[in-house]
Amino acid sequence: PSAPGPGHVEADTVAHCGDTTAGDFVYSLTFTDLYSGWTENRAVWNKGTQGILDQLKDLEAKAPFALKSFHADNGSEFLNWALYEHLTGRPLKVVFTRSRAYRKNDNAHCEQKNYTFVRQLFGHERFEHPELVALMNDLYAQEWSQYQNHFRPTFKLLSRDKRGSKTVRRYAPLRTPYQRLLDSPDVPKATKTRLRAEHARLNPFALKKAIEEKLRKFFTRLGNLDREATKP
């Protein structure tokens, strides 16, 4: 149920397409570590190979763990030579795996984060203006990441046993992704020092207030862009 240590990542994309996938619109990329639950999101215009690759490079550079394996679904934004060469064409190759067709549970950790980290934040509206990408990333990369990873504890499944008709699940104590990384012997001391310093500067109440303010500005901007687009 859990990874042996940090660095084993699942990735997926969420379409902000509203009721139709026709035309161009924004996607959100979700990047989650199986061991700690540390999750990052980034917005991209459409889901072209280069746009996804650029964001993944940025996420990998900023992640508080070394990437060891990468698991994605079967979308063309992941199954391409550019991403394959980026992950495997290095001295310490990253194991690159993909989900089986029609098996969403193969990417279950990321699918769950798609809802709690993307849909609960931005909803199901259609974002068909490229100007929105920068506004979303300003929130994703800063307050949203800090609030979720440093202050939102989550359960971690340790085991699942089938006993007759019942399934018995055993969970580890509630911990935040930040705390799990500090607990891990695989995370270098320098990284833990940096994480502690960042954590000491953060205030969850201030972060929550900033998130709400950025969301207000975002949806105001979205409304203005939608009205401009429908003018005769």
Spell out the helices and strands N to C: EEEHEHEHHEEHHH
Cα separation of the termini = 55 Å
In terms of per-residue confidence, which ranges show pLDDT below 50 for 5 or more consecutive residues? none
Give me the number of helical elements: 7
Secondary structure: helix percent = 40-55%
The largest sheet is: 5 strands, mixed
The number of distinct β-strands equals: 7
- Secondary structure category: alpha/beta
Could you give the order of strands across the largest sheet?
Answer: 3-2-1-4-5
Question: Could you say which overall geometry the principal axes of the C-alpha atoms support?
Answer: globular
Task: Give the topology, please.
Elements: E1 8-16, E2 26-33, E3 39-45, H1 49-62, E4 69-72, H2 81-88, E5 95-98, H3 108-122, H4 132-151, E6 154-163, E7 166-175, H5 177-183, H6 189-201, H7 204-229
Parallel strand pairs: 1-4, 4-5
Antiparallel strand pairs: 1-2, 2-3, 6-7
